[in-house]
Write a structure and sequence with these properties.
mainly alpha; single chain; about 80% helix; Growth Hormone, Chain: A
């Protein structure tokens, strides 16, 4: 397997990923700090991609069994990717419609965020499953592909955030539409060219696939595996603890530190730089100390960063806040490298779509719960105390506690135990399916 496939996978991953940047680094701040919408409402809208995450299991399992145009993954990559890019562009227009007609704007926002969310889910499970399948005979290639995909994604996230910051200085509604349109065009280009010819034609003997027509039989592959259940809960807790700040970090900068839109839009690039640093050195750390140890170190660093962010709000120090966001990226990057490598180990080729879909559900559901809980806590504490800072601090403190609990849970999860059980179960399912 050559470099061409890796570059194409990276293009698709970048194209889908950058659709998230303008929504979670700019639009969230405008909705909460400038439009004064409820943080809970904003959290619910931004969580729609994650609330729709069960689609990953359904699409992944469906694609395992039935090809479209002779391909199991690439048609879904193309469809999902273009939905994500177009839906992301629509969100800005729909949100501002709420200022003129709240009910109509809310309906339009639900539609736009749903299109975006469905696209992100469909594309993500498809290209991650393709990585697993293309690298089933060459784990080294798979590790290289994952490393390059995530490095390219972080670099593109930094570039997108910096580009948004420039386009939004000075800020206006027209400038916002221009910025979102630019992301739409770039993302669509990357997805179209990345998906072209990325997947070889389906052949009956290329991989033994789960073809059980009874969804309950397939679902048993997941729920009957003790290690799989533990890993699902671990991912859920980790993602809640890391991503509860997604909706609130930029509004925190505006409300607690009086940072303008252009400056808060740069926070994603500062965070991304921290992630990039650990992506460069993270693989060495994972190989040297192991995936579990590296993930746990990342969790501790992230907890320290959240503690520092709390302090910056109390002393109103913008420079320290930016440094804490950079450290947050360092810890998050190390956790991403470690947990992603561990996640790809926690699957088998015969049911790649099913397992990648399940881990995708845990990933996205964790982000959904994080966004919703953070918005709810921020609003509740703000209304109860009249002090907006207390609302933000309560969320960051919750994330610290969640990360420490996740470190304790991770020690009980074993790849070997998972694979032994999964291989036994898949043979049972294949027998029931008549293969």
């Amino acid at each position: 397997m050559g470099w061409k496939k890796i570059l194409q996978l990276a293009m698709v991953h970048v194209g889908v990923s950058i659709t998230v940047v303008p929504v979670t680094s700019t639009l969230n701040r405008i909705m909460i700090a400038d439009m004064h919408l409820s943080a809970l409402l904003v959290g619910l809208l931004i969580s729609l991609p994650y609330l729709l995450s069960p689609l990953q299991v359904l699409i992944g399992d469906w694609a395992d069994k039935w090809p479209i145009w002779g391909r199991h993954r690439s048609p879904w990559i193309l469809l999902g990717g273009l939905m994500a890019s177009f839906g992301s562009y629509l969100t800005a227009h729909a949100v501002f419609l709420m200022q003129e007609n709240f009910a109509l704007g809310l309906l339009a926002s639900l539609t736009a965020f749903t299109i975006w969310g469905m696209g992100v889910n469909v594309a993500s499970v498809s290209y991650l499953s393709l990585v697993t399948e293309l690298g089933q005979d060459d784990p080294t290639w798979r590790s290289r592909a994952v490393s390059i995909m995530w490095t390219a994604m972080i670099l593109s996230t930094i570039a997108t955030a910096l580009g948004l910051s420039r386009l939004l200085d000075p800020y206006s509604e027209a400038a916002l539409y221009t910025a979102f349109g630019a992301v739409w065009m770039v993302a669509s280009f990357l997805i179209l060219f990345g998906a072209a010819g990325i997947e070889p034609a389906a052949t009956p003997d290329r991989v033994a696939r789960n073809r059980a027509n009874n969804p309950w039989v397939t679902f048993r592959l997941l729920i009957s595996n003790v290690a799989a259940r533990r890993f699902f809960f671990y991912l859920l807790l980790v993602l809640v603890s890391i991503h509860a700040q997604d909706v609130l970090l930029e509004p925190f900068g505006a409300d607690a530190l009086q940072m303008p839109v252009a400056q808060t839009s740069r926070l994603t690039s500062i965070w991304g730089l921290g992630v990039f640093v650990t992506l460069l050195g993270g693989l060495w750390l994972v190989r040297r100390f192991g995936k579990k140890a590296s993930a746990n170190v990342g969790a501790i660093v992230t907890a320290v960063a959240f503690t520092a962010i709390i302090v910056t709000g109390l002393i109103a120090n913008v420079q320290l806040f930016m440094l804490a966001v950079f450290v947050l990226g360092l810890g998050g990057g190390l956790m991403t490298v470690s947990n992603l490598s561990f996640m790809l180990d926690m699957t088998i080729p015969a049911a790649a779509g099913l397992y990648i879909g399940a881990w995708g559900v845990a990933n996205f559901a964790g982000q959904a719960f994080g966004n919703i809980i953070s918005g709810l806590l921020r609003d509740l504490f703000y209304q109860a105390t009249g002090n907006v800072l207390i609302g933000y601090v309560s969320v960051f403190a919750m994330e610290v506690v969640g990360l420490l609990i996740a470190v304790w849970i991770f020690r009980k999860i074993s790849v070997e135990e998972f694979r032994r059980d999964a291989e036994v179960r898949i043979h049972e399912v294949l027998a029931l399916a008549g293969d």
